[in-house]
């Protein structure tokens, strides 16, 4: 499961949902699904979102090993 900082980063820089959608060439609904419902974007869209937020993709999208380990009974 890939986690993301899309909403937090977008809010920190004062960008609206609509503006991020426009800059990343997608719909507001898609951005909402990524931010609130954990939808995983494809590689191209992930890169477009990161570029629109002026961040490296690894700063926006990440795999949370601790959460995954806890869910599987590890760590």
Summarize the main sheet: 2 strands, antiparallel
Look at the structure and give the mean pLDDT: 89
Query: What is the rounded Rg?
Result: 13 Å
Series of secondary-structure elements, N-terminal to C-terminal:
EHHHHHEH
Into which percent range does the helicity of residues fall? 55-70%
Distance between the termini: 17 Å
Q: In DSSP terms, counting alpha (H) and pi (I) runs of 4 or more, how many helices?
A: 6
The oligomeric state is single chain
Question: What report would you give on this structure?
Answer:
This protein has 75 residues and is mostly helical. It is 60% helix and 8% strand. It has six helices and two strands, in the order E-H-H-H-H-H-E-H. The protein has helices spanning 6-12, 17-23, 28-37, 43-52, 57-60, 65-71, and strands at residues 2-4, 61-63. The chain has a two-stranded antiparallel ribbon with strand order 1-2. The protein is globular, with a radius of gyration of 13 Å.
Key structural traits:
mainly alpha, 8% strand
Task: Give a concise summary.
The protein is mainly alpha-helical. It is 60% helix and 8% strand. The chain has six helices and two strands; from the N terminus they run E-H-H-H-H-H-E-H.
Topology:
Elements: E1 2-4, H1 6-12, H2 17-23, H3 28-37, H4 43-52, H5 57-60, E2 61-63, H6 65-71
Antiparallel strand pairs: 1-2
Helix pairs in contact: 2-3
């Amino acid at each position: 499961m890939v986690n993301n900082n899309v909403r937090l980063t977008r809010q920190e820089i004062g960008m609206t949902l609509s503006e991020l959608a426009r800059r990343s060439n997608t719909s507001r609904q898609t951005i909402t699904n990524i931010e609130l419902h954990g939808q995983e974007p494809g590689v191209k869209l992930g890169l477009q979102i990161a570029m629109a937020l002026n961040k490296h993709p690894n700063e926006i999208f990440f795999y949370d090993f601790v959460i995954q380990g806890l869910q599987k009974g590890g760590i």
